[in-house]
Amino acid sequence: xxxxxxxxxxxxxxxxxxxxxxxxxxxxxxxxxxxxxxxxxxxxxxxxxxxxxxxxxxxxxxxxxxxxxxxxxxxxxxxxxxxxxxxxxxxxxxxxxxxxxxxxxxxxxxxxxxxxxxxxxxxxxxxxxxxxxxxxxxxxxxxxxxxxxxxxxxxxxxxxxxxxxxxxxxxxxxxxxxxxxxxxxxxxxxxxxxxxxxxxxxxxxxxxxxxxxxxxxxxxxxxxxxxxxxxxxxxxxxxxxxxxxxxxxxxxxxxxxxxxxxxxxxxxxxxxxxxxxxxxxxxxxxxxxxxxxxxxxxxxxxxxxxxxxxxxxxxxxxxxxxxxxxxxxxxxxxxxxxxxxxxxxxxxxxxxxxxxxxxxxxxxxxxxxxxxxxxxxxxxxxxxxxxxxxxxxxxxxxxxxxxxxxxxxxxxxxxxxxxxxxxxxxxxxxxxxxxxxxxxxxxxxxxxxxxxxxxxxxxxxxxxxxxxxxxxxxxxxxxxxxxxxxxxxxxxxxxxxxxxxxxxxxxxxxxxxxxxxxx
Length: 519
What we know:
The longest helix is centred in the C-terminal third of the chain and has 20 residues, at 443-462. Helix 13 (402-416) packs antiparallel against helix 14 (443-462). The chain is built from 17 helices and 18 strands. It is α+β, with helices and mostly antiparallel strands.
């Protein structure tokens, strides 16, 4: 269906991208990639700044209020500030925040915005780590936080139907009460929304056995740039009717449409769980133990690893009682039927003991397992407690490169003068690689960080890895987008973007801008 003709171009102050308002320890505008077009208009032309343009800006906000009602449209300082940033270091005030409460609201807003060429940035809970929902070109922030209902929970069909503002942990708890499970479990599961999880194809520790968000999306309702409502997928667990449009939208970072409803796959909740915590004299021993686990035929639900800097930070923050001695640590989870889990954890303990573990502890049952997981859940807070600025990169390397990654991190420390803490999902190679920078406000320090990140991403790509496994590209990784993709891949992205959002109004200023212009 062709998009309707536009009434007018967006020529108010919104179309002229505003300078970022730095947050605490935020990078400069140049550091964020101004020279690479981060603040360019999508059509490359400067917007008019005359009085008529400013008046149009006031008119469009009034028009939104008339369209949706005062309770759904806000220009209060508090709401604009709240909608200006996520958990990364960039910040930009929008011109207006719209709080959608239905698919019809979203459709009306996008149709209205398309007619006028208004930038629209969809926002869920705002717990992203790459600036993905920062409205870098101002305009409209379209919040779906009020669309937070679990519409259906049907164990007999193995599915749930949810609105995008539902918090991940809330769905998990609701499903568990019925004996079912929604496996994707990002660390911020009690704060992040499912719409945001879909936008970034979020993962978590249990991805090893259960997969990422994409594997759990059976159907979507998506509002396209012109306001059209697309329903794709189904309520069934198999479907080969046409192209895989679900895969197109999962991970699209809000640049192809706005998800307003999702049908998600549920699995039976495993009745038994066991955990094993092991520390080693070296990180290499811990990494070798990971390979031994798979070689012996185990498929844990999670395998987490941590390096010496992460462990030392945890000792200083949490105390030595919770952190065993050693320079490498493994935490392994098993789940399934009670008899098989008890047998597996016993065999696994024997295997790990033979690999030279300094300390071994096992637990069976949810409550006891969570005691062992307390350490893992405190790694991030422990690193922040060092007083250093924690720059979290969610790179992924082939599993056999875990030791190489930690060695490379040590080389970066020696060359640039700051530590690099590595911990995370050893089972799939998705290691959170945290540059820990002192005095990050100092431009010279930021410059060294940028050089270190260049080196890190170049090495990861050389190993056949990727620059992001969970968080997405957003603004934070925009400058490495070309390095991480081929010219043909970028051209395909650009064509898809142009087909679904020809004027680039959806989440503009992010990594597809240059590709869109090139097309």
